[in-house]
Amino acid sequence: MKIHKPTKPKGTKRKNDILDAFTRCVRKQGYAKTSMVDVAKEAKVFPSNLFYYFDSKDELLRLCFKEQCDVIVRGLEKTKNYDIEGKIEYVADFLFIESKSVNHFTTGFMYEAIGISISDPILSQYKTEMDNCCKRLLADVFVNIDAVESTRNEKAEILYSLLAGSKLNGYFDADHGPEHGKVAFKKVMRIFCNQDMQWPAN
């Protein structure tokens, strides 16, 4: 008997190709200067075919932003697989070391989308959901350290603010790049996890 393997919904590959083309266009020239015609050329499709799958450039941005939000959340969910020392190392490495999923381009893309989210309720919703998930996952790191939930949440809020500031600063200032942010983030996290009682020396 012939076994039929499940297939992806029709058009999924073409949609993914278009989304990839969109991110390449944004990487080359930024979101503001990217047009649907640019995306169609990059994806090697007719503009009419592009609009068959996506209504607008805004829709492409929302989908790519949502996917990147999910990448970050899925990455932080893996902290549950480690002990305290492992959690500190993993979180710092995942958030600050350049990788395929989290890198200089994705950082810039996220901040560009976040800027647009001020006037886009869908992007704003995605950002809020990501923020809440990330802070909850960071707070979970301290479950076996702090019995008081509000203390865990405060630590997570501080770490998340430090992350956002360090990533933004490192994006524009080469002297304070990912490694600089990672060192500061780890120092704060170690103190919060009671691994260091005072600010550790470099």
Q: Encode the helix/strand succession as letters.
A: HHHHHHHHH
The computed structural class is mainly alpha
Strand content: under 5%
Report the CATH architecture of the largest domain. Answer: Orthogonal Bundle
Q: What Rg, in angstroms, do the CA atoms define?
A: 20 Å
Number of domains: 2
DSSP summary, beta strand count: 0
As residue ranges, the low-confidence spans are 1-9
SS field, number of helical segments: 9
Largest sheet: none
Using the alpha-carbon principal axes, give the shape.
elongated
Mean model confidence by pLDDT: 90
- Separation, N- and C-terminal Cα atoms: 65 Å
Give the CATH level 1 class of the largest domain: Mainly Alpha
Helix fraction by DSSP (H/I, runs of at least 4): 55-70%
The CATH homology group name of the largest domain: Tetracycline Repressor, domain 2
Organism: marine gamma proteobacterium HTCC2143
Keywords: DNA-binding
DNA-binding region: 35-54
Protein name: HTH tetR-type domain-containing protein
